[in-house]
Structure formats: structure tokens, C-alpha cells
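Still learning. Show one?

>
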Amino acid sequence: MLQIKSFAFNPLMVNCYVVWNNDGSAAIVDPSCYSENEQTTLTAFIKEQHLSVKHIIITHFHFDHVMGAHFTSSFFNVPLSIHKDYIFLAGNFDIPIQTQYFGFNMHNPPKPKILLNDNDQIQIGDDFLKVIHVPGHSPCGIALYSPTSNFLISGDILFEGGIGRTDLALGNMEQLLNGIKQKLLTLPDNTLVYPGHGGETTIANEKLYNTFIG
């Protein structure tokens, strides 16, 4: 069974998740830690829990979700994993240029070495996270589903009462809504949803109250 811990990092309050199995195998999802204090918070938790980081997974290639990608990849000596369609953004999405408009000083993250596909299974000990590709907010947008622990990390695809914005580079509202309805809302109603920003929700709540997908 997988356990999960969230941290809201950087001024844009991106949820970084640590997911781990009983044997101590762990994954970091969206390494968004920007400041030294945030980096220390993340590494201290992993040390206290005696975890061994096996994966660093990016739900989509937007700067706020990769603010700690350099640090975590180097510190834990683990390559980045991202959906293969990140290549459509990588050539048109220069992190340093984009972030300077927001007052951040960032380098481009390390080139991801593990390219994911829809329905891939990311092994964490004897458990796994299933990759669900839902483009629209970003071409490489993914959610990560644990059928055994009954939770979904939804990135910036689905929020409590909202969905990801589609007015950014290569955004597509039709793709996003179709993906949410066909791939996420078909999960069990009691599935816990952990989004890229904000608090957790459930699939049932979003079916009932999310006016963007009603």
C-alpha cells in the first residue's frame, strides 16, 4: 500500500508529493521546492521516514512544477521522468526567459531521461502508479493513479471545483475536458484526488460540483 505526503512549495504554492511503499521505496512528484528552506523541508522528511527515492516524476513541463528539479535530481541522483510529449514544449518553452517575468531566477531543468507513455506503470516497491495521459493544459500532462491505495495525483488537470487553464502554449480545452471525462471521472467515486495546487477532493465531489465539467 502506498502512502502520500504533500508539501506546498514556492510562491505559486505548487503541491509536491512524496509517495512511498512500506519497504521505503519512494517517488517525488513535481519537485517544486524553490528556496533552500523548502529543499531542507523535503530532504529532512525523506530522511526521517528512511525513504529511498527511486523516481522523480513531473506531471507537466511548466516552470512552477520543476523549480526543484535540478536540486532533487542531483541530491538523490535520480533522473527525471515525464510524458514523452514534453518534446512539443521543450523547444518552445525556455524556463529562464519565462520565469524572469515572474521575478524568478531559474535555469532549465535537467533533460528528462525517462519518457513515459499512457498506461505505463511506475513501480514503487511492490506497488505502482499508473500513468494517465490527459493533454489540454499541457501536451505532456499526466495524472498518476494508485488503484490499491485509491488516490489520484492530478497535476494541473483537475482541481477541487476547477480544471487546468488552457490559454497557455499548446493548451486545448476540448482535449482537456475529454480526457477528464473519459479517463478521470471514470475512476471510482471515492478516489481521493491530490491536485497540483490547492486542497484534495474526490472524484465524486467533482462529478457533482465541478461546474467546468458538468
Remarks:
- The longest helix spans residues 36-48.
- The chain has one domain: 3-209.
- The mean pLDDT is 95.
- The helical segments are 36-48, 69-76, 87-90, 95-100, 173-184, 203-209.
